[in-house]
């Protein structure tokens, strides 16, 4: 049975994910071997295969862990007892901050998603669709209530915002002039201005 933690108490799955994320970001998914991942994590191949069935499973988990966090946070914003404008703005800003906080994961995903098996690819698309549908429901709620313009279909509004989010990994730099929260506030404000009646 593989050890579940190392000397400092870090669970082996987290060590493997951290090593895989760093290597996939530096070298690319297709140019990173399983051997390089286990060496960087300080574990055996047996340990990797105990927790992850394949390198493909690691790639899927790199993205899925961020999406799980984002889904939980979106559900909290959407279900809050606040005006729809506040809930949408909070959710719109949050997805920007959580993406920037996990920029390597986002970059790996958009660069390497095509390497996922058809089954994993379908699963990821379903998870993303669930997130986008919950986000879109906030836009539609505001449109039905008359606080958001109906001039642009909700789907297009959502695609507009997430297009910006998906490109963060290509231009955002932690050393740049804006903090993650400042970028998030600007993009959320742009979204709300686009929906103004």
TrEMBL record:
Residues 33-52 bind DNA. Transmembrane segments: none annotated. Keywords: DNA-binding, Repressor, Transcription, Transcription regulation. Pfam families: TetR_C_24, TetR_N. The keyword Transcription applies. Residues 10-70 form the HTH tetR-type domain. This is TetR/AcrR family transcriptional regulator. The lineage of its organism: Bacteria, Bacillati, Actinomycetota, Actinomycetes, Kitasatosporales.
């Amino acid at each position: 049975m593989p050890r579940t933690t190392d000397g400092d108490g870090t669970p082996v799955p987290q060590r493997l994910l951290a090593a895989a994320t760093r290597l996939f970001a530096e070298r690319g998914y297709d140019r990173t071997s399983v051997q390089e991942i286990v060496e960087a994590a300080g574990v055996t191949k047996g340990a990797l295969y105990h927790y992850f069935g394949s390198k493909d499973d690691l790639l899927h988990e790199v993205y899925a862990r961020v999406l799980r966090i984002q889904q939980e946070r979106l559900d909290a914003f959407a279900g809050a007892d606040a005006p729809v404008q506040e809930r949408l703005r909070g959710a719109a800003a949050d997805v920007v901050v959580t993406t920037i906080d996990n920029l390597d994961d986002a970059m790996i995903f958009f660069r390497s998603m095509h390497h996922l098996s058809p089954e994993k690819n379908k699963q990821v698309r379903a998870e993303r669709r669930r997130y986008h549908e919950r986000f879109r429901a906030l836009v539609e709620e505001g449109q039905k209530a008359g606080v958001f313009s109906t001039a642009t279909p909700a789907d297009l509004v959502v695609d507009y915002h997430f297009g910006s989010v998906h490109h963060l990994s290509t231009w955002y730099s932690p050393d740049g002039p804006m903090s993650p929260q400042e970028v998030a506030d600007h993009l959320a404000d742009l979204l709300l201005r686009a929906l103004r009646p």
